[in-house]
């Protein structure tokens, strides 16, 4: 990688991409290319955004357009779920680092298969970059570092029903609600004390974190979801338990479900990312991040990783975020983006015989 060039943000005018693009333009010395099929939207962002934002039309079905962008690229940030493995392969073949914010396990697995290519060209790709996966991975790593004897990890996500969700995020959430239950894992719901919201019931949800973190941390990981509105949480997971979402999906109603979810505005825009680690003696530690606007938070996490890649901080290969960042340092850094980190004092974590502390997870 050279010391000059452009930061290319594919899908750079979307809900997350525009945050990545404007953060990179403000916080790095690189020219930032806002790339996507809709040139008018890219141009509008370039006119209103800070720093050096350059609009470029890019159709991912046309390899020649991508080749032209990669010629001068210092990093590529992929903010859409479309031809992700092909884009990552093109970047790594040319020695261009890549960040992919995808949350789908199959997309991540496809890019993981490019590890040998990345090492051959001396280039890094970073996955699980955003909220979940992303900050949840970092929080889980932080917990296992604080409790090396951990035998299990629980990850809980609380989402705001009126947040700045992009269409990909909404489609992905609906897909999780319509997915068949994981008969092999059979995790139960849990009561979790979440900073700013109190004790909430969270339900098992197929975030990709539970698969990648189980592998990278070496302990079983369970991921759960709830929403800021108790009524929405109870209704959605009650319908899921009754099989209503799977039936609607079989009848072709997934698109209607996605549209309805996009218009749902019963709560606010606050979120919580929470992780806890428990060991065989019952000791538990927890860490959490709270903030507003999930799309904004996803974008700044991706931008921070892109800046580090341009600074050559990570070794060649395909990595998930928890495998390469210093968890404590990264959590300190993101607080400058209006995110708040919460952890119980070490003294509380060391008391195995006391009652539950704030942040405690009680599995049900």
* Rounded Rg: 20 Å
How would you sum up the major sheet? 8 strands, mixed
- The stretches of 5 or more residues where confidence is low (pLDDT under 50) are 256-262, 347-355
Termini separation comes to: 50 Å
Number of helices: 16
Average pLDDT level: 84
The class by helix and strand makeup works out as alpha/beta
CATH topology of the largest domain: Dihydrodipicolinate Reductase, domain 2
Overall structural domain count: 2
Largest sheet, spatial ordering of strands: 14-12-11-7-10-9-8-15
Structure summary, number of beta strands: 15
The percentage of residues in β strands lies in 15-25%
Based on Cα principal axes, name the global outline: globular
Highest CATH level, the class of the largest domain? Alpha Beta
- Helicity, as a percent range: 40-55%
Any idea what the CATH architecture of the largest domain is?
Answer: 2-Layer Sandwich
């Amino acid at each position: 990688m050279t010391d000059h060039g452009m930061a290319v943000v594919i899908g750079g005018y979307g809900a997350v991409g525009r945050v990545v693009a404007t953060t990179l333009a403000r916080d790095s010395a690189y020219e930032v290319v806002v790339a996507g099929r809709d040139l008018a939207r890219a141009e509008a962002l370039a006119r209103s955004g800070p720093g050096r934002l350059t609009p470029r039309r890019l159709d991912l079905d046309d390899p020649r357009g991508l080749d032209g962008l990669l010629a001068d690229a210092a990093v590529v940030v992929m903010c859409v779920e479309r031809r992700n493995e092909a884009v990552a392969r093109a970047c790594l073949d040319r020695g261009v680092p890549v960040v992919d914010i995808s949350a789908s396990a199959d997309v991540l697995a496809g890019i993981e298969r490019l590890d040998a290519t990345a090492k051959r060209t001396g280039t890094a790709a970073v996955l699980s970059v955003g909220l979940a996966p992303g900050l949840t991975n970092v929080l889980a790593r932080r917990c296992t570092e604080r409790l090396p004897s951990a035998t299990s990890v629980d990850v809980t996500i609380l989402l705001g029903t009126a947040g700045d969700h992009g269409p990909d995020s909404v489609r992905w959430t609906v897909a999780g609600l319509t997915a068949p239950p994981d008969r092999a894992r059979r995790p139960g719901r849990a009561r979790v004390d979440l900073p700013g919201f109190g004790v909430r019931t969270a339900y098992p949800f197929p975030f990709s974190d539970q698969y990648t973190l189980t592998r990278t941390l070496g302990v079983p990981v369970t991921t759960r979801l709830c929403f800021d509105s108790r009524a929405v949480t109870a209704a959605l997971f009650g319908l899921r338990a009754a099989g209503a979402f799977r039936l609607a999906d079989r009848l072709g109603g997934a698109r209607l479900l996605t549209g309805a979810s996009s218009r749902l505005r019963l709560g606010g825009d606050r979120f919580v990312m929470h992780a806890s680690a428990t060991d065989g003696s019952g000791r538990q530690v927890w860490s959490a991040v709270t903030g507003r606007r999930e799309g904004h938070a996803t974008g700044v996490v991706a931008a921070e990783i892109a800046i580090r890649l341009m600074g050559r901080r990570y070794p060649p290969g395909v990595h998930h975020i928890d495998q390469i960042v210093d968890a404590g340092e990264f959590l300190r850094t993101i607080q400058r983006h209006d995110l708040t980190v919460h952890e119980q004092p070490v003294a509380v974590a060391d008391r195995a015989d006391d009652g539950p502390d704030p942040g405690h997870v009680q599995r049900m």
